Structure prediction request, 304 residues.
Amino acid sequence: MKVTTIPFMAMRKIVACFSVALILISLGSLAVKGLQFGLDFTGGTLVEVAYDQAPQLDDVRQLLADNGYDDIVVQNFGSPTDVVVRMANAYTPTLGDEVLESLRNHGEVSVTLQRSEFVGAQVGEELREQGGLGMLLALLIVMLYVAVRFQFKFSLASVAALAHDVIITLGFFSLFDVEFDLTVLAALLAVVGYSLNDTIVVCDRIRENFRIMRETEPYDLINESINQTLGRTLITSLTTLFVLVVLFLFGGEAIHNFSMALLVGIVIGTYSSIFVAANLLLALNVTREDLVPTPKEELEDELP
Prediction:
């Protein structure tokens, strides 16, 4: 494969300004608007029903919306005939029967009530806390791994690039008022792993080139390393994006936000693995001496 000669590092100042602008917009939106947490985090009522024949989930949603149930999540549960309806409505002992009556559509549909229960806001608060702690723990483990595998400057650059990806993805969900639920949190953790994989590939090539290209300045060496790994980065990202676009368009409501979070995260992650991590390495003044240990002086022969 022919190696490209794109001057990535010549664009580093423009890219840095662009990334800072995206982060500021994201943080501003998160501070002012926050995230629109789904029922997984806010609490609500869960109703499980069983159909004789598998229904179309879009028809179920529309039927409930026509009966005044607006803030709902409808998903299959276990089998195509089992459906779970999660709603923000306050729980009452008769709510399950009321939803069941709406789903029966004046007796035209055969459906039975399996359970009706309340998911408290306390559970949602614990999920938010545990999810946030899980994200911080993942970044800490990544930082330790890269510090041991490469060097501390690489560790700082990699974790900063991952934080960049997570903040911008969260900002997207906040800015456009997209519901944030457990599937989105899972997608964010997947984005961290994906982005780290791309960043590690670039960092590994930079390290190898520092050992091979001894007379090359870090600016040119990093630029050459990005060009050498560009084909692999783009092929991996594009093939992943093709699958995610299909899931986003045809995967249904249950994974709609999940696939959207992965789409945004992988686009930003690919961008950060090419520009952000390498840009930060230059800012940290990485040199060959940071990666290649100084040869030990030979011990003098002991006197007899």
Notes: Confidence is low (pLDDT under 50) at residues 296-304.
